[in-house]
Amino acid sequence: MTDAEIEALAKARGLERAWRDHPADVREAVIQAARIGAAFTRPADPAAEPMPAHAVRQS
User: Pick from 36, 34, 13, 32: which is nearest to 24 by CA?
Assistant: First the structure.
């Protein structure tokens, strides 16, 4: 990801000052978020839940 793309993402999220004052930190955060997002596969069904609903155990 280029610095121009990261800057555009930062500005879109209202992080202009963070990008200006701490570009290395913002760059690392964007790279980490992209890495985490790529680690999960999207389900084929858009209505699928990422995990089963929780049920209260009966005592």
Answer: 32
- The one-letter amino acid at 22: H
Q: Is the pTM of this model over 0.90?
A: no
The tens digit of pLDDT for each residue in 38-52 reads 887 877 887 777 776
32: which 2 tokens? 């980490």
Per-state percent for the chain, helix, strand, coil, to nearest 5: 55, 0, 45
C-beta of residue 26 within 8 angstroms of C-beta of residue 6? yes
Helices (H), 13-56: 16-21, 23-38
